[in-house]
Design goal:
This protein is of the alpha+beta class and about 375 residues long. The chain folds into 2 domains: about 1-185, Porin (Beta Barrel); about 200-365, Alpha-Beta Complex (endopeptidase fold (from Nostoc punctiforme)), CATH 3.90.1720. It contains 6 helices and 19 strands. The chain has an 8-stranded antiparallel barrel with strand order 1-2-3-4-6-7-8-9. A 6-stranded antiparallel sheet has the order 13-18-14-15-16-17. The N and C termini lie far apart (about 60 Å).
């Protein structure tokens, strides 16, 4: 059993290394664990998580805050402790006015529990599973609560002669200490479900970097309604279409049509990845589009911003866009460098000004560039 535990933990370590190479988010989570079924004081612990998509890798340990009273059999005191290595999957977030209220999640993983004293040690190796809720409380802070059922052996809960699972309730805080995004973004973790798909994600990250670096070359180009080139200026959809055309992707001309191609992404910061297209609704429909850069930032051609610029969605101006966020799509250049035509079936050109300007708080002229 110990050998199996080490092999499984080794696999988690390999996956963690691959995640680090992709610049995921990192968080530390102090917590308190309560054991309703045991005569043990609360246990204090700390966990470490690596995040970057809809899955997370988490490892941590906990120990009783005080020694347990000695029994008649043993005169020495006992201090229970435990350690866990979990895979965590976050489910659909619950939002209000584009703000995340809470995100439910489920988890399962390997566990070790022990009772120590100066005279003996009782070890239990097995696995555990459970679920919880996480609520963002700021740009780098979240609170969470979860319930765990811990098996003392590597058997299913309904297996013959299986010992009953031990219940635990855990409360804690999660602090972002590295990687990109706010605490709400870090709620969603690895975008792949196994080591093989993690390896496949590397070309996708390189493609997203190419999109963003290409878009950044045109910061400062003025806004022009109906514009589609850096020489004359861009409107929002014209800029996005031009950037992707430079990388072999042919997009529809209008932002409302761009919202219908590629892979659908949930329109909130939790689900977005760098390179995603984000669409904004105003005056009855989608009429503005931007490229998500990461860390709650977008790059776009904005009439109220004076042209192509970066905007922070956590700023006063950026909150207008966050409140009007209506759709998101994932459209990246083909990893093999082949052309990708997504404009078939949509108008090849449109009358000037078909996509109206945004109505975000206007940037003063001296700050536009």
């Amino acid at each position: 059993m110990l050998r199996s535990s080490l092999l499984a933990l080794g696999a988690l370590a390999v996956a963690s290394t691959l995640c680090i190479a992709q610049q995921p988010g990192v968080s530390l989570s102090p917590f308190v664990t309560f054991l309703p079924d045991a005569d043990v004081s609360p246990l204090a612990g700390l966990s470490f998580s690596i995040t970057g998509g809809p899955l997370s890798l988490r490892a941590g340990g906990h120990m009783s805050m005080r020694d347990r009273a000695a029994s008649n059999t043993f005169s020495a005191s006992m201090r229970p402790w435990g350690a866990d290595a979990d895979a965590v999957a976050y489910l659909e977030s619950y939002n209000y006015n584009q703000h995340v209220l809470f995100s439910p999640y489920v988890f399962a993983g390997l566990s070790t529990a022990a009772v120590d004293s100066g005279r003996y040690r009782v070890m239990h190796q097995g696995w555990s599973y459970g679920g919880g809720l996480m609520t963002p409380m700021g740009s780098a802070l979240s609170a969470f609560a979860e319930m765990r059922w811990r098996m003392s052996q590597y058997v299913l809960p309904n297996a013959q002669d299986a010992l009953p699972a031990t219940r635990e309730m855990r409360l804690g805080l999660s602090f972002r200490v590295g990687g990109g995004g706010t605490a709400a973004e870090i709620v969603h973790v690895l975008s792949a479900t196994d080591i093989g798909s993690l390896a496949e994600a590397a070309p996708t990250n390189r493609a997203a970097s190419r999109v963003i670096s290409t878009a950044e070359n045109y910061v400062g180009v003025p806004y022009r309604r109906g514009g589609t080139s850096p020489s004359s200026g861009f409107d929002a959809s014209g800029f996005v279409r031009f950037v992707f055309s430079m990388l072999g992707v042919n997009l529809p001309r209008l932002s409302r049509d761009q919202a219908r191609v590629g892979e659908r992404v949930r329109p909130d910061l939790n689900a977005l990845s760098p390179g995603d297209l984000v669409m904004f609704q105003d005056e009855g429909g989608i009429n503005h589009v931007a490229i998500y850069v990461g860390r709650a930032r977008i790059i776009h051609s904005s009439e109220t911003g004076g042209g192509v610029r970066m905007d922070d969605l956590n700023s006063d101006r950026g909150r207008w866009f966050l409140e009007h966020l209506a759709a998101a799509r994932r459209v990246l250049p083909d990893a093999r460098g082949m052309l990708l035509d997504l404009a078939r079936g949509f108008p090849a050109d449109v009358p000037s000004g078909s996509d109206g300007p945004d109505h975000a708080p206007r940037v003063p002229s001296r700050r536009r560039n």
